[in-house]
Amino acid sequence: MNILKRSLHLKINLLALLISTTLSFSATAANTYTVDPKHTFPGFEINHLGFSIQRGRFNQTSGKITLNPELSAGNIDITIETASIDTGFAELEKHLRGKDFLDAKRYPKITFLANRLRFDKDQLIAADGLLTLHGIAKLVHLNVDHFYCGMNLITLKNTCGANITTTLKRSDFGIDKYTPKLADEVNIDIPIEATKD
Question: What is the pLDDT of residues 47-72, one digit of tens each?
Answer without folding.
Answer: 999 999 999 999 999 999 999 999 99
